[in-house]
Amino acid sequence: MSTTFENATTQSVDVNGTKFVFREVGRKGGTPVVLLHHLTAVLEDWDPRIVDGLAGKHHVIAFDNRGVGGSGGSTPKTVEEMARDAATFIAALGFSKVDLLGFSLGGFVAQLIAQQQPGLVRKIVLAGTGPAGGEGIANVGAVLQDAFGKAGATNKHPKQFLFFTQTKNGQAAAEDFLRRLKERTKDLDTPVSNETIQAQIAAIGAWGQGDATALGTVQHPVLVVNGDDDVMVPSFNSFELARRLPNAQLSIFPDAGHGGIFQYHAAFVQQTLAFLEQ
Hints:
This protein is an alpha/beta fold.
């Protein structure tokens, strides 16, 4: 298996007749860490420093859920279906117990996997995410549109507005992150389609109107992480997650936004490794 995410082979597995693409890094054995991604994201959007950092101690798997990037099928319009698809993908790889790292939309998916199939999950990391019905989550479409408008007007990448603060430190971190995403130059994933983006926005909108009562039943150890100024899933939601989850710990990075885990990738990897090994 590849020792770095940059050189990891893109593989595929048949999931009930649909091709799901994935990459894996690190030594096999133990409880694998499955990564669950954000709105519009494909394999190329994972920070290689985070994947490689975790893969130093764990078998790490990143994948495109149904209809996303190089995976087949149509993207579901509900988080519930996304969670079922992700769990079915995990089963297709033959795993009976995994750790989950869910970022943003992926954090919604991770919460539901833990509720739908608690026996499948050992530990959970929830980054830049929030509970069903969380404050401001249903506004994601407007936030996305605003960021794309600003990006077009300033010749910047939308992630510079969506994932990072507009301070000097935040924008320097954004530029570093965007450079890291370009390190891989071969065997690149397929970009998301407009249909996928619209389905994901619909799913996030519905999640933002949902009910988080069932979070109280999630007994797994959970590490909740965010920046202190998240414009996509307002940071208040991370505090709410930690309050609602019976076995949670909270980490908030200063002068950081939705992509706080990318801005503070070294500290995040250190925290996550310690959490997984506790």
